[in-house]
Amino acid sequence: MKINPKYFPILIFATLAFGILLGGWLNFPDQNQFLAKNNSKNKLNKLIDFINTEYVDNVNTDSIVAHTVDNILAQLDPHSVYIPPKEQTEVAESMRGDFVGIGVNFYMYKDSLAIIKTVENGPSEKAGIKSGDRILYADKTKLFGRKLPTDSLFSKLKGVEGSEIVVTVYRKSERKNIKIKIKRGVIPLKSVDAAILLNATTGYIKINRFAETTYDEFKTGLTKLKEQGIKSLVIDLRENGGGYMDQAIAIADEFLKDKQLIVFTKNKKGTIEKTFATKTGSFETGNLFVLIDENSASASEILAGAIQDNDRGTIVGRRSFGKGLVQREMDFDDGSAVRLTVARYYTPTGRSIQKPYSKGNEDYFKESQSRFDNGELYNKDSIKTPKTPKFKTPKGKIVYGGGGIVPDVFVPLEVEQSKEHTAYLLQSGILGQFVFEQLDHNRTIFKGMTFEQFKVKIDGTDLYFNAFQKFLSRNGIDMKLDDNKALVKRYLAAEFARQLFNESKFYEIVLKDDAMVKTVLNNK
Question: What's this model's pTM, rounded to 2 decimal places?
Answer without folding.
Answer: 0.86
